[in-house]
TrEMBL record:
Keywords (A to Z) from UniProt: Isomerase, Magnesium, Metal-binding, Phosphoprotein
Entry cofactors: Mg(2+)
Full protein name: Phosphomannomutase
Enzyme class (EC, first level): isomerase
Residue span(s) of domain Alpha-D-phosphohexomutase alpha/beta/alpha: 8-134, 159-263, 272-381
Keyword Phosphoprotein: yes
Example GO biological process: carbohydrate metabolic process
Enzyme Commission number: 5.4.2.8
Length: 466
């Protein structure tokens, strides 16, 4: 079978169907190309994988291919994606984690980073890795290095947990009951290590666990908390247990969604604003002037408005972890947030970690007496549509139709990422963006009133869907 890598290589990661667009042979070729393109012969390369049935096999295949081309490979075993970023930053080594994040069980893929957790994207090496790997696949082989590398292993979970605890002090907060839905993903391993007492001393947190069993077939519900139906079990558990807060992680545990004490979701934009508030105050206390906060163009306007009020500087960017991490580094930003619940920290090598964001929310909640719903109300003044997906055959044509339909409106147009229209009086905005990983056109909108939001939403969706 001939593998066409263009079917699995995306703008900032690799994602494909196991046995069809991603196989052990294609993984070995990608590993060899990874070493060649990044010039890693003789250097350490980190390899790990999530709990998907194919991840261990693929991690082994990648280790073999990388060592064959001369890299010194360190196997990290079963890891979350942010554990790779931690190891890559701490050890200053390039690496890969096998995961397909929230995609169904039949998928797997690769998230790659250069040394220091510096991201790889199509513009910064991923396209060249694809090209070289495709040549190796087409040739049916790739040469061995003059000095093949060795393969060893290490466990980074305890160091990861200790590092996160060093960034947010939870020891002195009031006792909290925390319901956590791991979705049978990697948070089932990282939550007990970071928030529990499996690796470190106990915190004043009572954990109510849901689906902590590591199972990449996802027997209970898809590990995609962005979809409201996948939060239902957690919402019920929060109410039934009387929890102060609920946390839901995706499959590779790099994203975290938050539920308040009444079972209502807290928008990722509100979480971004809350964490930005804390991080701005922290670095200002240390003497930093005008701290920079990154937010993508789909994040609520509440975020840049809060940043300005607190004396920081907000920088808008396109969607996608590789792009945001690059801007984080360029701007020396202290923190960044996305509508999809990816949260990025300067103190975490500019990488995203859902667990660290969750710890900030726990700290903010536990340092005062308000319930979470009341605490986050000030960070959530507008009305958002949430992300609405439409399967459209010609995405570009659909975006053009919408732009033309709104051409007579008094609105600014941006093409930073898809098409964004913003009313001149700032009363509403919306964005249409083609997915990089799925066959969807994504709509996000926000307005000052629910009626405005619903009117804009319904008009745009009717144009898209005909």
């Amino acid at each position: 079978m001939t593998i066409d890598l263009s079917e699995s290589f995306k703008a900032y990661d690799v994602r494909g169907i196991v046995g069809q667009s991603i196989t052990a042979d294609s993984v070995r070729a990608v590993a060899a190309a990874f070493v060649d393109v990044l010039e890693l012969a003789g250097q350490r390369v980190l390899v790990g994988g999530d709990m998907r049935p194919s991840s261990a096999e693929f991690a082994e295949a990648f280790a073999e291919g990388a060592a064959h081309r001369g890299a010194q490979v360190t196997q990290l075993g079963m890891i979350s994606t942010d554990m790779l970023y931690f190891a890559s930053g701490t050890l200053n080594a390039a690496g890969v984690v096998f995961t397909a994040s929230h995609n169904p069980a039949g998928y797997n893929g690769m998230k790659m980073s250069n040394a220091g957790a510096v991201p790889l994207s199509a513009d910064t090496g991923l396209d060249e890795i694809q090209r070289v790997a495709q040549n190796y696949l087409d040739a049916g082989t790739f040469p061995a290095a003059e000095t093949p590398g060795a393969i060893d292993s290490t466990d980074t979970l305890s160091d990861y947990a200790a590092y996160l605890r060093s960034l947010v002090d939870l020891e002195g907060i009031r006792p909290l009951k925390v319901a956590v839905d791991a979705g049978n993903g990697m948070a089932g391993m990282t939550t007990p290590a970071v928030l529990g007492d499996e690796r470190l001393s106990a915190l004043p947190l009572e954990i109510v666990p849901l689906y902590f069993e590591l199972d990449g077939t996802f027997p209970n519900h898809p590990a995609n908390p962005l979809e409201p139906e996948n939060l239902r079990d957690l919402q019920r558990a929060v109410i039934a247990s009387g929890a102060d807060i609920g946390l839901a992680f995706d499959g590779d545990a790099d994203r975290c969604f938050v539920i308040d004490e009444s079972g209502e979701p807290v928008s990722p934009s509100a979480v971004t604003a809350l964490v930005a508030d804390r991080e701005i105050a922290r670095v200002q206390a240390a003497g930093e002037v005008e701290p920079v906060i990154i937010h993508n163009l789909i994040t609520s306007r509440a975020v840049p408005e809060l940043v300005a009020r607190r004396g920081g500087r907000a920088v808008e960017t396109r969607v996608g972890h590789s792009f945001i991490k690059a801007v984080m580094a360029q701007e020396s930003a202290v923190f960044g947030g996305e509508h999809s619940a990816h949260y990025y920290f300067r103190d975490f090598y500019n990488a995203d970690t859902g667990m660290l964001a969750a710890m900030h929310v726990l700290a903010a909640l536990g340092e005062q007496r308000l319930g979470l719903g009341e605490l986050v109300a000030e960070y959530n003044p507008y009305f958002a549509s949430g992300e609405i997906n439409s399967e459209v055959e010609d995405k570009s044509a659909a975006m053009d139709r919408v732009a033309q339909a709104f051409a007579h409106r008094d609105a600014a147009v941006s093409h930073m990422d898809g098409v964004t229209l913003r009313a001149s009086d700032d009363s509403w905005w919306f964005n249409l963006r083609p997915s990089n990983t799925e066959p969807f056109l994504r709509f996000n909108g926000e307005a000052h009133t629910p009626e405005q939001m619903e009117a804009v939403r319904d008009e745009v969706l009717s144009i898209i869907r005909g």
